[in-house]
């Protein structure tokens, strides 16, 4: 695997998001304990951890789908509280979920514009402007280089990779400040993966979008990410810059999985990330 | 995805087959134009009854019976389609069908409230019951099948206890009568006379409601969000669709439609019968919806199909009697038709997904 060189993050890049001491339980199950993460402008942060470590819960809190039991979220310097996904989106946080928030029975272009439909007034009625949405969707997918048979086809009938591309395209359409991707490469072939990773790089460099990426494939982390946060049993066990650690080291730490102390000891061996 | 050797046009992109065989093309037609397949059934049925009755089936007076039933059933079937698209169902519609006109007639007889005002109150009551059904279903997470069986008995109990199951003669006058539901077409009527046209108003109302809801479903944000709610509720919620509200609103639409159907029915019979709507009416409406191409799985459905489905059910009910079969025979056909329609619908969906046509 060729490791791309990541242009270093500007040292004065402002912090765009700070989640502090977030805890969340579902009944008797504790999902997150005092988790804190921070994200700077244009930074790509990898969130890694085994199944059930709390990654999904954390991003669902960030995207307003769950509310934290304790802890604060500061976005663009202001403390915010997200009661719904709508709230989070209004603050420029877009999320693409693992379970692909696409509507199988709707066409590609309707999916692209769901929740932000174009309208036209016909005889005083506020009707959907399907033609405009169709054209815009086609144009937009073309600029991203995503090829599907037709924007009219129902999402159900597309392949997994095509669906993932539509989902990512959907989420970056509104030029978010923070993009959260939950395992965006899970169902993709090599070429499509490279395409999505390229998209992430572009977003980061050209639009200064910050990205939180949940990934399981560690070499992909080193291709695009600035920093890694390792979640273990609902706690952050490692916070390191990709420049300061290596794939082998990361895998060793993740594999050890012996609980907090062992992880801490291992984490102490690599230099901590920028404070 | 690996590049394929030949990529002649965009339409031939990876993963999508261009349909070639007759069977695949038929599948596309069936899945894309569900209304078309049921319309074919309806036409075959009309021809069959027309021949079997020596031309009596398509006479204006007989059609006014069939279309009266089609209108009544079609309104309720359409209401069910909206709900079935969101993944819910309402079994209390027959009780709303009874209680709304009953209250309209009661207000008129007891307090002298004009029927038009009573009709508005009746529809509002239907909408209110729909809201209650929706809120109980969504907020308390009671399956709508159970919620609405509850309201069915509750409302039915109320309406029969008001006057000890006695029908109230509604003081229906012109033009209320003509607008909402005239007596049936008489052999002496001319087709273009006032009475000749207004004999079909129940059906015309249903047609209007169906066209409006078809527009809502296919051309508005409300319709898009309704489909999204039933297709992938978690995904829709993550995107920011207010799925709970969508369900409640559609319960309200359904309640309003059922109340309206009941008022039309009462205008026609000039009498509000507390037992006008038996639960059987709701089941027939669900049958019409299913025959018309709406699956119970949510996410898709057609209101125009539901109206055609209602026409098929009404034709079976009346036509079989007309050609000399016993009244009960129509239920045998209806039962078989429901099962056949459901099997066809599911098979078409499966084949469509597997072949990606």
Describe the structure in your own words.
The complex is a heterodimer of chains A (275) and B (357). Chain A is an alpha/beta fold and 275 residues long. Chain A has nine helices and twelve strands. In chain A, the strands form three sheets. Chain A has a six-stranded mixed beta sheet with strand order 6-9-10-3-11-12, with helices on both faces. In chain A, strands 2-1-4-5 form a four-stranded antiparallel beta sheet, covered by helices on one side. A two-stranded antiparallel sheet of chain A has the order 7-8. In chain A, strand 9 (178-182), helix 6 (190-207) and strand 10 (210-214) form a beta-alpha-beta unit. The two termini of chain A are 30 Å apart. Chain B is mainly alpha-helical. In chain B, 71% of the residues lie in helices and 1% in strands. Chain B has helices at residues 22-32, 34-52, 60-85, 93-111, 115-139, 144-162, 176-180, 194-198, 201-219, 221-231, 233-239, 243-269, 279-291, 303-322, 329-355; strands at 168-169, 271-272. Chain B has a two-stranded antiparallel sheet with strand order 1-2. Chain B is globular and about 60 Å long. The relative contact order of chain B is 0.19. The interface between A and B is large, with 39 and 33 residues.
Shape of chain A: globular
Total DSSP helices of chain A: 9
The average pLDDT of chain A is 81
Secondary structural class of chain A: alpha/beta
Number of strands of chain B: 2
- Provide the CATH topology of chain B: ABC transporter involved in vitamin B12 uptake, BtuC
Distance between the first and last residues' Cα of chain A? 30 Å
Low-confidence stretches of chain A: none
Average residue pLDDT of chain B: 85
